[in-house]
TrEMBL record:
A GO molecular function held by the record: 3-oxoacyl-[acyl-carrier-protein] synthase activity
Domain Ketosynthase family 3 (KS3): start-end pairs: 4-405
Keywords from the named record: Transferase
GO biological process, one term: fatty acid biosynthetic process
Domain of life: Bacteria
Entries under SMART domains matching the protein: PKS_KS
Family: Belongs to the thiolase-like superfamily. Beta-ketoacyl-ACP synthases family.
CDD domains with a match to the protein in the record: KAS_I_II
InterPro entries to which the protein is assigned, alphabetical: Beta-ketoacyl_synthase, Ketoacyl_synth_AS, Ketoacyl_synth_C, Ketoacyl_synth_N, PKS_Beta-ketoAc_synthase_dom, Thiolase-like
Protein name, as recorded: 3-oxoacyl-[acyl-carrier-protein] synthase II
Amino acid sequence: MTTRPDVVITGRGMVTSAGTGVDDNWKRVSAGVSTAVLGPDLGVLGTQVICPVQDFDAPAVLGPDARRLDRYSQLGLVAATEAVGDAGLRSDEWDGSRVAIVMGVSVGGVETLTAQHVALLQRGPAATSPLTMPMSLVNMISGQLAIHLRATGPNLTVSTACASGATAIGTARQLLQADACDIAIAGAADASLVPLILAAFARMGALTKRSADPLRASRPFDRDRDGFTAAEGAAVVVLERETDARARRASIRGRVLGYGASADAHHVTSPHPDGMGAQAAIRAALADAGLAGTDVDHLNAHGTSTKLNDRAESKAVRSVLGDEVSVCSTKGVTGHLLAAAGAAEAIYASLSIEHRLVPPTANLEHVDPEIDLDLAPVPRQQSIDVAMSTSFGFGGQNAALLIGAR
């Protein structure tokens, strides 16, 4: 049996409501300070809490052509630019045919699509922009990254709802192990904080209604949680085979030890009540890494702050990882980044290893009595060798990543 090469993270980039850049993100997340604000008023639906990216100036980073990109692509390109720079790479120096891009997306350029629909209804067909399709298609983030970074290798867009970021990183790792590329740029982006999407989530009963107290609205695993806080952002990593990274003396930010994926085959929006699909993804990641559940020191959980997800995830974690793994959900700070959640939380997991710190689960005041996990409402110092990040999406799609120390 051929031994698969080890894959490492050599670059990280982030743009979220917690800040633009990895350092700003980590400061906010490790402090446990919520980023929620009031967004569009959805009237009788009773919710308007969101976690948007603030003070974001895409043209300052990407130049004037940024205006020809939907916001989700802008966020993704800025995060990728940071990740490539962090990896010590230059797109004008590499062999672009050996650079792969794998990005996770949910609904794509919905800001563009909804704005152009309004233009069509109000002013007629001639008012629609000729850029509508190239700005809104779900694959355009990967296509735009290829142009921006001169990357002509495999170019993929994956969509597994809120598991998309984790799926992208796992898929990119597989491309490296198959020798389909030498460098893989992987992650996800989402910018869906438009009234249509927010109203749709609200009609499902998925969003928090704590509009009177937005900073305390997202409260994963808490007894009084009532839904997630929608957020936007992007997170991107640069992956390489360890031998290649060491040959060029790159700084290694962490290792991708294992990846697992599964489907609930249960319900389009609700997780299996016992977390069976989540268990399968976690077990698959452990098997991929050749590890046991007890080898995992820390879990950055999906932890959406919804009644069903948090309970199902708790059952899955207890069943596979046991009762000694430290668990946090950073969504108490960032809200739910939707497609980008898995990529962002994998980066947070790598930072937990690096800084020996378990971030607090913000707003955790009274743990749900049906949730039996080692959770902490305050930061905790801990030596971490192996961390896991779990991500689950509508359609019953599940993904788990195992991140190891450098």
